[in-house]
Amino acid sequence: MQKVKLSTIEGSLKHGRLWIGEWTLACYLSICISFITSTILSIFFPQEYKLDLIGTIFAIVGMNLVSAFISILFIFILIKNHKHKKRILLWLKDVVEIETYSKKIDSYWNPASVISHIKIQVDFKFNEKIISKTSAGKVIGITGEGYHKIWTKYADRKINILYSPKYDEVLILKDR
């Protein structure tokens, strides 16, 4: 099989979506913008509202805490995604491309999201054995195990997957 690019992979059933390219860049930019905004507001906010020393300290500390929280959140996402990417690169060493049918097992509606989170299952034949795999990754947030909104694109239709027999992992390929 020819070498598979990471940009052609949507994610893995075990860990969910793979964030690469512009998504990773957006996380880094969000961290930078958070710090820049916090610094600018820390300088101009106390002057604009003529705050006393205690008010100025509270404003600066508050803005920096918000910036630190946002940065920690994005750093956590980047670290988690980097680990996911390393695992996928390992799995790609022995993958086999298979066309199969995916089916929606269940859906979960999150009030904070417009789109339902879906749990899918793929059944395929490999080495004369029928293998069944279900989405299992937990997304950051309140969704349940294996539910992700990205699977709505791939539910109840034919899809292309990459199967790694050595690691027993399934990767979902993006539509061509």
Give the tags.
176 residues, alpha+beta, elongated, 2 helices, 2 domains, seven-stranded antiparallel β-sheet, single chain, 38% helix
End-to-end gap? 17 Å
**Overall geometry:** elongated
Order of helices and strands: EEHHEEEEE
Please give the domain count. Answer: 2
Amount of beta strand: 25-35%
The assigned structural class equals alpha+beta
Ranges with pLDDT <50 over ≥5 residues? Answer: none
CA gyration radius, whole angstroms: 21 Å
Could you describe the largest sheet, including whether it forms a barrel? Answer: 7 strands, antiparallel
Oligomer: single chain
If helices are DSSP runs of H or I spanning 4 or more residues, what is the number of helices? 2
Q: In which range does the helix fraction lie?
A: 25-40%
* Largest beta sheet: strand ordering: 2-1-7-6-3-4-5
Mean pLDDT: 85
The number of E-state strands comes to 7
Write the layout of secondary structure elements.
Layout: E1 9-12, E2 16-17, H1 22-48, H2 53-91, E3 96-108, E4 117-126, E5 129-134, E6 157-164, E7 169-173
Antiparallel strand pairs: 1-2, 1-7, 3-4, 3-6, 4-5, 6-7
Walk me through this protein's architecture:
There is one protein chain. By secondary structure, this protein is α+β, with helices and mostly antiparallel strands. It folds into two domains: 17-90; 95-173, no CATH class. 38% of the residues lie in helices and 27% in strands. The protein has two helices and seven strands. The protein has helices at 22-48, 53-91, and strands at residues 9-12, 16-17, 96-108, 117-126, 129-134, 157-164, 169-173. It has a seven-stranded antiparallel beta sheet with strand order 2-1-7-6-3-4-5, with no helix packed on it. Helix 1 (22-48) packs antiparallel against helix 2 (53-91). The model has no long low-confidence stretch (mean pLDDT 85).
